[in-house]
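A favour, since you know our structure tokens better than I do. Just paste the record in under my message, thanks.
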Amino acid sequence: MKTVLSTLNAKYIHTCLALRYLKAYSEPDFPVTIREFTIKDPSLNIVTDLYSQEPDVLGFSCYIWNIEETIKVIQMFKKIKPETKIVLGGPEVSYDVAHWLEHIPEVDFIVVNEGEETFKHLLTQIQNDGGFDSVAGLAYRKDGNPKINGPREKLDLKTVPSPFRFEEDIQSLSKRITYFETSRGCPYSCAFCLSSIEVGVRYFDPKLVKDDLIFLMDNGAKIIKFVDRTFNIRRDYALDMFSFLIENRRPGVVFQFEITADIMRPEVIDYLNEHAPKGLFRFEIGVQSTNDAVNELVQRRQNFEKLTRTVTTVRDGGKIVQHLDLIAGLPEEDYNSFRKTFNDVFAFGIEEVQLGFLKMLRGTGLRLTAEKHDYVYMDHSPYEILGNNVLTFDEIIRIKQVEDVLEKYWNDHRMDHTVKYLIHHVFQSPFDFFQEFGTYWETRGWSRIGHQLEDLYTRLIAFLTEAAPHSLPVAESLMKLDYLERQQFKPRKPWWENTQNKEETSKVLSLLAQYPEMIDGFPALSEKDMHKHAFVTDTAIDPLSDQLEPQSEKDFLLIALFDPKQQSTKVFTTSKKSLLTKNS
């Protein structure tokens, strides 16, 4: 019996951990082939590939991001090979099971919730031509009607074989994100989240977990993302794992965790700040809302004071990148309340702020009580809200405009110096800057066309010319610094028209070749190398100082030195007048 498991990932770099658990649990009794695609792959190409595998049983792992494309593949495949048994599993089809059996008649079975034991039991029954009434956790049709068997007892995770030892995965470990779990379940009951449905937290065997991590690192894995819903729920466990990863790290490996910030113990943070190498760890923290009344409505316990302590202490330690999540559209959080939530979180000054929109997931408490808050939402995945009793669709559109430029101008870190200046010195708040700019971006139609890096700079200049022309001298100076710091090679044509006088530039480079001590930290280079690898432009301020008021028009020089071998850039600034007159 030939069994094939498949899924459509969001991108190639993502891998499906669920399929690998099913394969590991089913083998060697039932050999399993895994075929992974992306949601952008043409359906016919996917069907062609799966057809070539000649499966007797074909399983799909289903999520909100792939269910619609998966249905197309299933319907097409069943027309070509109707005798193949189609099995679905995953969070998207584990709820409203009768709906899916009715909605997708091509599907033969649905594995509900945790699937390892259920899927293997199902394969046994298919092979033996047995009945399916005894397969706990399985849904199917009997006499034309949906039949949903009773739930299966939770799996003893310490008996689950490793999903990370397949030979076919090893060669791509360095190119893809490796998803890893050390526990299942969540201790919280947030009404918008599927994780809240499974009560309690179960752990895998810690020794086997550590063995797998060593194996993955030794075989080239570079990004290992832990999918535990609350990695730090047990202080001693988290501290032991952090310590293990620090002591056994390999060059270039990054570990990502989902943590709950307000329960992070100070001694754990102190340990990380003292012992963790910079860049080894990355924390994803779900804040969602800073409105206590909103959090209470969704049964979310959060101590913002303790959360603030954790985030700021980690930030000040300078070792760990932090990514904070927000959700727009929670019950009774109107536009102004969300604006405050956004500003509260942005005030932390951390590396990434992810702005998402509430999705009414099947099986969640919030979807079951949607009428209480007049929720309107998409009928199909991703079930995103279109409005409620306090947030109109017009306001959702506006917040989406914030999300658009937030990703481009903050989370991608293209203009950190510039954005910090604008949100602290020009606009009323961070939210107001992103909102005004996002609305301007949309009215110009830029969201419907592509852009190059240089376009991001010229479009911001266009916006500031209308919205805050007084800020242009400082903003343009900081944008030049942001641009040059990110370049690995001397730019042939920067985003601005470089009006720097060529004779003056030549004089500057000649002086610095002779007297590099004129600028603190400036390296000794030959005049030839200076002309080859240095870029000079004038600015209204010294963008590396704290002085953000122009002294006179273009009184400063910004000098960038590019090292093509190291692909690194060093930027220096100096007063144009003092440099040119010192040795005249």
Notes: The chain has a mean pLDDT of 94. The two ends are 87 Å apart (CA to CA). The first helix runs from residue 17 to 26. The chain is about 40% helix and 20% strand.
